[in-house]
Amino acid sequence: MKYKQLAIKVLTIGIALIAMPSALADEPLATDLMLQRSLVSSGDPARLQAVFAKARRGEPICVAAIGGSITAGGNNTKDPARRYIQQLAKWFESKFPQTKVSFVNAGIGSTNSGYGALRVQRDIIEKKPDLVVVEYAVNDSTGKGKLDESYEGVLRQLLAGAPNRALIQLFFMHKDNTNAQPEQEVLGRHYGLPMISYRDAVWPELQTGKLKWEVIYDDVVHPNNAGHDIASELLRDFLNHSLAKLPKTDAELAPVPAVPAPMISDTYERCSLFRPADLKPLSSEGWQFTDSRVWECGSAGGRLEYEVSGTILLLGRNIPATANKSVEIIVDGDPPRPLPQDGHNLPVATGLSAGKHRVAVVVHPFGEAGKENKDKVQIWWGGAAGLK
User: Fold this and answer.
1) Residue 292 class from Cβ within 10 Å (0-12 exposed, 13-18 middle, 19+ buried)?
2) Which domain holds residue 44?
3) Distance CA 64, CA 166 (A)
4) Which end of the chain is more exposed for a tag (fewer CB within 10 A), N or C?
């Protein structure tokens, strides 16, 4: 009887191990073919070699990543050490044990390169990173044709911010295989950047059944621990091959090329960002700055006016379903236009003249009359591109 119970217990453990949703970090999931497919382009090696040379000299190194919720990790990577940017920092520590290595994870959920261009100075460049991974292939795919310009702005700000800063573009994907890789790849080739495609690596494996979506993803878009393990394997493989080509002396390093002229525009290279606490209204009726540090307007409606400079305006907001089609924006006294409930990372005004603009956010009464409505229209942040 004891042997039978033991056999059942062993069988149960075995089944549980097979059904585990993620692999252990020390068990590689990326095959040689996946590694080969993932390399879209090695790009110009000069910037990356400059980073390696700095680490070889024993100088402190900072690696960073900017992107959406995939980069942020959150509940999908319950062990923060499994997030790809942390694993990238560990790679540098293993290769350059005499060097102090730090990292910055600047991923924010539900954001794309529109908001990224506004905050890259504050959240990345001010931290003075040596290597930055840019991850917006999934979130930028929701605004195809609208976000190429802002994505270029993120790249240009990072490249212009330091002559030896290296960039790597990383392309994740949605469960239906969609992303903004085609558009972002064109920009990457224009700027001579290394590009790693998670999508190109795993999609054929998923199609043939060699790899199951549930093993590497928690939902339709967020990789779990095992998914981040694969991403870090792809990045580390590229870095290993790149490091092997590092000249033996600094004197042999190739010069870093100048940043080329914009492919689309440099509008998003000159941005501003304000938080709600920074907003100083020209006038306000029915709005208030709350303890949650956001501006709110209730169902009774209201009007908030402020001034901002730029040729493209953006406004992060939350518009509840009950207030849908009840919120408008007015720029410089022009006719009011509906402020959509979604798309809060897309421009709310474009093609403006350079200089200052007066913006009014108008909330018309919403909800059922006579009934208490706790829903609030909120402003989370604002900003502009195309500053002088």
Assistant:
1) exposed
2) 21-252
3) 10
4) N
Residues 6+ apart with CB under 8 A from 268: 117, 149, 150, 152, 153, 154, 156, 157, 312, 385, 386
- Domain assignment present for residue 71? The answer is yes
Using alpha carbons, list the distances in angstroms from residue 50 to 57, 242, 253, 254, 368. 11, 11, 7, 9, 62
Give me 126's structure tokens.
């001010």
CATH of the domain at 348: 2.60.120.260
| H or E stretch at 381 | strand 377-385
pLDDT (tens digit per residue) in 143-189: 667 899 999 999 999 999 899 999 999 999 999 999 999 999 999 99
- Compute how many other C-beta atoms are within 10 angstroms of the C-beta atom of residue 364: 15
Same domain, 171 and 198: yes
Residues 238 and 299 in one domain: no
Assess whether 248 and 274 both reside in one domain: no
- For the chain, the first-to-last Cα distance in angstroms comes to 82
| pLDDT of 222 over the 50 cut | yes
Q: Which amino acid is at 292?
A: S
Q: At what angle do helices 181-190 and 148-161 cross, to 10 degrees?
A: 40
**Token pair 């923060």: residue:** 80
The residue with tokens 């991850």 is 135
The residues, any chain, with a CB within 8 Å of residue 77's CB and separated by 6 or more, are: 83, 223, 224, 225, 228
Q: Is 26 helix (H, G, I), strand (E, B) or coil?
A: coil
In a domain, 12, yes or no: no
CA angle 90, 96, 99 (to 5 degrees): 90
Give the distance, in angstroms, between the CA of residue 347 and the centroid of all CA atoms in the same chain.
17
Examine residue 262 and state whether it is found in any structural domain, yes or no.
no
pTM: 0.92
Domain shared by 208 and 91, yes or no: yes
